[in-house]
Amino acid sequence: MNEIGYVAAREIKIGFRNPWAYSFMALFALFMLSLLLINAQSYVKGYSGISGTMLNLALYLLPLMALMLGAFSLTGEKEEGNWELLSTYPLGTWAFLSGKYIGLSVVLLVIVALGFGLSGVAGWLLGGGFDFSTYGQLLVFCICLSLFFLGASMLVGTIAKNRWQALTLAVGIWFFAVIAWPSLLIAALGMLPYSVIKPAITVLTFLNPAELTRLFTVVKLGGGSTLGPEYYNWMRWIGSPWGTPVFAGAMMAWIGVALLIAYAVWERGRRVG
Amino acid sequence: MNPVKVKRLIVRGVCFLAVVAVSLLAVDAGVTTSASGPGKDIAKQEPQVLQNHQKHQEHKELQALLDAAKPGDSLILKEGVYEGPVVIDKRIVLRADKPGGVILRNNSSRPALSIQGDGVEVEGLSIQDISVKENATVLVSGQRVILAGLHILTGADGIAIRDAHDGTIKDTVIQWAPKGVRQANKGNGIDLYNAHRWTLTGNEITDVHDGIYMENSDDALVSGNVLRLSRYGVHCMYTKGTVIENNEGDRNVTGAMVMTARQVSVVGNTFTKQSENVNSQGILLYDAHETSVKDNRVDGNRVGLYIEQSTLNKVAGNSVSYNFIGLQLLESDDNEITGNGFVGNVADAQARGSRSNSISGNYWDGFQGIDADGDGSSDISYAINPFFQGLTQKRPPFQLFFQSPGMVFLEGLYGGDSSGWARDSAPLMAPSPESLQSAERSEGDAASALLGLALLGCASLLFFGMRRVVQ
Q: Which region is the signal sequence (chain A) (predicted)?
């Protein structure tokens, strides 16, 4: 337990001295503010034009930020020889990885908090602002998205040998999960018989954290009816008292599995050398 | 790194996470209460069945009183409970001496009140007819009947009008009474069949199947009614010349449904918050022709204006804001859509087919135009991308990608040949003042500013604590 704390604390410290963290923070805050300025004096409530745009902005930016921060942090340790040094200490792989994850989450959540705090206060000062539950829902969305993709980034950082490989993989995953997702699914599933399409989409959506989080948030914001009659049950289900706990459970399972695979790969590397 | 510093770091990190977690919990609690909050306050309003009538008033034989009256008589009923069913078959005026005091109760399967005579007037009665049944609570088959200020609790159609013309229903309240009945099995509030030239004004209809249903009934005036929590607010089938004006509807599946109708006018109505159902719309035109839809306000619905297989309609000056989809235009031609304001919708418009409409001078807030000659409207047109509509028509499961970032990207790629698309030829650069109104603010916004401040504070504190100290 103590080891995890040490690694996490070190990660937080390094994270806040990392120019990447600051440039990401500036980027996120700037985009949040500019969105507010474009829609100055409009009030953000429920699923509407502006909250939809904010969702999409976060989907573009946050997964990429999380993937890069996490993957670079791990590959940096390998490239700079820190990991070799750490290996001589009595430090387990699990403590190392989970400590890293916790430390990076704090850094990333601080970035998100700053961007959100800024836009919340600025929106209010500009005369528009957010409805409280909508604001909270968007914040939850950003936090979930960050945590999901940090989990994925641990895996990327484990598999990649150096920062270049990490960059390639991270951008690839981001593009696949966020931009190309509908195109790929439409192309691939369009060839399948009609009755298979919906189950296939359902399974695949649970594999893509960006889609999963987006849909959960859209339904929570009251926009479930946009999904059409096919997904009436999803809408009802997410709206029920079990919706939030089950989503949280799925998220933890997803992140846990990502960390476990990273752990297995890392351990193997350690043994094989 | 010395252990004290590490401890301090961990404490700070944990504090930050704790603040975030607490605020999230608060938000989630807020969400669940606000989700269950509105919507239900009216639904839960129990229709009150009055039971505390004075003991000494025994049940009176209303039918006997009616039988004794002569045509042209006025019958003023004293306070009390009267047993139905009753039939009025001659021209009389039936009035309560005190509104709310006269209760007509019916336990039979026949209508509580059947009006067969011409020119009958009924005013101020409370009718309690709460068993679920086929026959309407009030059945009108006489001509030129006037019903005013009634308060009806029903387990069937509230007021059904059959083959009767030129009547009036005003200031009447109709509510569904029995519990646990699915919406599809409820009766309509006011149900007109083959009934022409009726005037329906100032009624309040809640929690029924269709608020006002008109079939084969022409030239009705539907004005100033309030329609809530029902399937459709106003529903026209096979009608002509119906006027629907200044009504208010919220939380129905659809506000105004105009189907297979001609020369209907829908003017100055307000339909809001019709977003819960996957088939919800503000105003729907289906197979409607020569209709005029003007100066309505449709806010916060799933689809603001839905137009399918309809021609020669005029849609002008409506304010369509904060809907999930502003305008949905399917296989409709020769319509004129001008001067509407589409603001704050998640998707401005979707179209399929619909090539030859005259669409111009609307404001779309998702579109950035260029106005070189300074006439206030854009020199480039706004084309409505048919890709998503076409895709989901063939394969509805792909509806899941509605406005996802990848979908927006893909729609952009698809924009190559837009010659056959429905388009606004000269979209406005700025919304007209009357079409622009922001969503109503709630009290929560100061709270979200506070939460924002707290987040900002925590984050800054952490940054401050993390700064590199030069020793």
A: none
